[in-house]
Structure to design on (327 residues):
């Protein structure tokens, strides 16, 4: 099915939700998936992010084959980026009448446009980066990584290229090899929250691999995970995907920082935009209170959970409470 490419890789931020221990974070996972916004990491938004990066890079690019030739290459790339953003944005929308055959025809035209562009401009690094990125969105992984490696060879200072290569290696089960690319992306673009988020996710998901390598101690990796999510949250305080995961990361510390977690859930509750979001944060807070042994406080908080969609999660926490009156 052509639209299958719209399911982003597991290492992409949009699919990185709580897998935890990892009992501490599982209570509200289902409710978050259903009720909290995830728009910052949609394909449409990621394409807008790349379009902005691509246009900035080509604006700063130096002469490649003479000023007139470069100008034509820049204009062609801009048109291709805008067209692929439009196509991927339309494909990402829920539409029962989506014309897959027409989409395939048009996206193939874009791909041919890239191939013609790169044949005429074989050293146009940002052109390779853009084409490699598009191929990754079309789930053509082998073709994508070949193009991205070429882009990296021509210009080693493209943070999105580093990040995409890291994504590929992580998806291929090579987290230790992916790490330097994620770190390089952060070094090149330290203010991009997504890169910090993906670093934290990589370290968390492949924690055992890093520990087995002998290059990481448990305390160091737990701190690195927490720090990566902190930076993502601070750089993008309005992105619930990042702030939510930062609040969870207090659970990953040894010992868990329950007080720190409570403060973050309280902040998220204040910023929540709907009743079900606010009550989701309260469920997390109640879960933390139970971990701390503050059963009466947890019981009172759980009484405020009224959303039907959270009833199962509420019941799981209520079941952990002692009968009323017991000490």
């Amino acid at each position: 099915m052509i639209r299958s490419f719209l399911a982003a890789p597991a290492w992409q931020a949009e699919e990185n939700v709580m897998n935890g221990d990892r009992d501490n974070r599982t209570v509200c996972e289902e409710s978050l998936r259903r009720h909290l916004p995830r728009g910052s990491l949609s394909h449409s938004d990621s394409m807008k992010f790349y379009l902005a990066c691509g246009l900035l890079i080509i604006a700063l690019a130096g002469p490649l084959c003479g000023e007139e030739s470069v100008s034509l290459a820049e204009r062609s790339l801009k048109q291709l980026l805008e067209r692929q953003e439009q196509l991927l944005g339309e494909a990402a929308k829920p539409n029962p009448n989506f014309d897959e055959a027409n989409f395939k025809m048009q996206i193939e035209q874009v791909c041919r446009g890239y191939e013609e562009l790169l044949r005429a401009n074989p050293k146009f690094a940002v052109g390779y980066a853009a084409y490699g990125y598009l191929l990754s969105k079309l789930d053509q992984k082998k073709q994508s990584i070949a193009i991205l490696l070429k882009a990296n060879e021509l210009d080693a200072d493209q943070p999105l290229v580093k990040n995409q290569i890291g994504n590929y290696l992580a998806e291929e089960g090579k987290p230790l090899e992916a790490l330097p690319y994620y770190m390089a992306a952060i070094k090149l673009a330290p203010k991009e929250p997504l890169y910090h988020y993906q670093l934290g996710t990589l370290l968390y998901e492949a924690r055992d691999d890093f520990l087995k390598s002998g290059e990481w101690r448990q305390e160091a990796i737990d701190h690195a995970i927490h720090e990566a999510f902190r930076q993502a949250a601070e750089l993008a305080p309005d992105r619930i995907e990042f702030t939510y995961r930062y609040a969870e990361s207090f659970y990953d510390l040894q010992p868990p920082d329950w007080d720190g977690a409570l403060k973050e859930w309280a902040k998220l509750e204040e910023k929540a935009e709907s009743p079900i979001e606010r009550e989701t944060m309260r469920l997390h807070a109640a879960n933390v209170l139970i971990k701390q042994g503050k059963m009466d406080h947890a019981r009172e908080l759980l009484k405020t959970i009224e959303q039907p969609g959270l009833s199962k999660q509420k019941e799981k926490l209520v079941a952990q409470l002692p009968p009323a009156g017991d000490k």
Q: What stands out?
A: Residues 42-155 form a domain with the Serine Threonine Protein Phosphatase 5, Tetratricopeptide repeat fold (CATH 1.25.40). Residues 61 and 126 are 9 Å apart (CA to CA). The mean pLDDT is 82.
